[in-house]
């Protein structure tokens, strides 16, 4: 039983860490998209 609890705790920690990483990657992609949009708008004007 103790092994199951330890494994579940480890899995929960990894899941939370992955969510933070994915959220950070999403912000990076969003920032890159905004930069491309701004550059395209500047080139058009």
UniProtKB/TrEMBL annotation:
Keywords: Cell membrane, Lipoprotein, Membrane, Palmitate, Signal. The keyword Transmembrane helix does not apply. InterPro entries: Entericidin. Residues 1-18 form the signal peptide. It comes from the Bacteria. The keyword Isomerase does not apply. Belongs to the EcnA/EcnB lipoprotein family. This is Entericidin A/B family lipoprotein. It comes from Peiella sedimenti.
């Amino acid at each position: 039983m103790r092994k199951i609890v330890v494994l579940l705790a480890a899995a929960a920690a990894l899941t939370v860490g992955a969510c933070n990483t994915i959220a950070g990657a999403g912000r990076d992609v969003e920032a890159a998209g905004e930069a491309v949009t701004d550059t395209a708008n500047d080139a058009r004007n």
